[in-house]
Write a structure and sequence with these properties.
single chain, 403 residues, mainly alpha, 17 helices, globular, transmembrane helix, Gate_dom
Length: 403
């Protein structure tokens, strides 16, 4: 696209967004508050400990230790260094965009090549168990057993994507002599010690940097969540989303899915939480139809997550296009697994114990993930405010020292 045309497109879209905000100020404010509540109640407090821990583990060489230990597994399976296992595990535990954040940090420290980083980020940006079991399964569907089906399909398909993406960029990659040494705890410890000695900062400064960097990233994440919450609302108000939904209705009918799922599906392509909530409220013949759509949007991640990942990767030389392709592949594989595993992981589990109380009548609070979710909503805002105050104090203290 010509640069002048880009300028016109960007300026035109920004002008339309501005006019829409002026035309619908009340609805935009309501959507912004909804996005803000989601960020400071759940997203910030749930991700902050993982981000800080990741920064500290990188600084103290623990990631190097993990890399040496898991090199014999990660290299043959995914064609990435063993350090990639740290991003994979942290991504599965805490959800997006942790995988992208850790991949970018590993690339900045030259523990990954450009192609290895593109492979790693393609399968480490997962949904967290808290979101799958707590928000979707128990919170939206009030069906605790649905979480198992969604989680198995989500994480298994993600691993398959990682195996497929191992071939990404193989032609451009220079020949690299493989490390022939066997598994060695001693070597892993030596590498960890050598890596820690490179960090000459005192512990207090390292901890402060971890807190500041983590909060900066989470503030950026919060901005994207609020922006897309408002954007989705405005697109609905100006009748763009309903018009696009008409096109998706015919596509869904090809796959024998209800046309009523088209609007929730489009919303899910923008923002997963909103889409999953809308899908749970649609009446369908079987739950399988809803599970298929949710599995796809979980794998695709949603454009809100894409924007967050793109912003994180923009600071490095990691390209975004392989990640986008991997998300489409992840969603497609997740749909296939959902169709295959729906009966053994959901229907059969519901019919084995006929004397059990129906899942829909179970108390959502009986789920450990839902308990964590509610705890976040109760105490998350306090943790968010406290963390921002601590970050402000650290920055103020450092500014005084510079003076």
């Amino acid at each position: 696209m010509d640069q002048r045309m880009k300028t016109l497109v960007y300026a035109g879209l920004t002008l339309l967004l501005t006019l829409s905000l002026i035309a619908f100020p009340d609805q935009a404010l309501e959507a912004a508050i909804r996005g803000l509540n989601m960020w400071w109640e759940v997203v910030f407090p749930s991700l902050l400990p993982f981000f800080i821990t990741a920064e500290l583990l990188l600084a103290f060489g623990v990631v190097k230790f993990i890399g040496v230990i898991f090199e014999p597994i990660m290299r043959p399976l995914f064609n990435v260094p063993g350090a990639g296992s740290f991003g994979w595990m942290m991504g599965m535990a805490s959800g997006y965009p942790t995988g992208a954040k850790i991949t970018a940090r590993l690339r900045e420290e030259n523990q990954l090549s450009k192609l290895e980083a593109e492979r790693l980020v393609s399968f480490t940006n997962n949904s967290s168990p808290l979101f799958i079991f707590g928000a979707i399964s128990a919170g939206f569907f009030h069906d605790l057993k649905l979480g198992l089906l969604l989680a198995v399909c989500h994480y298994t398909s993600n691993a398959i994507v990682g195996i497929c993406m191992r071939f990404h960029g193989k032609r451009q990659e220079r020949f690299r002599k493989q490390d022939s040494k066997r598994f060695s705890i001693k070597k892993a410890f030596q590498e960890m010690h050598r890596d820690r000695l490179k960090e000459e900062k005192p512990f207090g400064e390292i901890l402060g940097d971890a807190v500041i960097n983590s909060i900066k990233t989470l503030v950026m994440v919060g901005g994207f969540i609020i922006l897309f919450s408002v954007l989705i609302k405005l697109l609905f108000l100006v009748h763009v989303t309903p018009a696009v939904a008409v096109i998706f209705q015919s596509i869904l009918e090809i796959f024998h899915l209800p046309a009523d799922l088209s609007l929730p599906f489009i919303s899910g392509l923008f923002e997963i939480t909103l889409g999953a909530n809308m899908i749970s409220q649609v009446t369908t013949d079987t739950l399988l139809q809803k599970a298929v759509i949710i599995s796809f949007i979980l794998g695709f991640n949603g454009l809100s997550i894409h924007a967050q990942v793109a912003s994180i990767l923009a600071k490095t030389d990691i390209r975004f296009s392989p990640y986008f392709f991997a998300r489409l592949l992840h969603g497609s594989i997740a749909v296939i697994l959902t169709l295959l595993l729906y009966k053994p992981l959901y229907l059969d589990r519901k019919t084995i114990n006929l004397n059990e109380v129906p899942v829909s009548q179970l108390d959502p609070n009986s789920s450990i993930w839902m308990s964590i979710f509610y705890w976040m909503k109760d105490y998350g805002p306090m943790l968010t405010i406290l963390s921002i105050i601590i970050a402000t104090c650290i920055l103020f203290h450092r500014k005084r020292q510079i003076k």
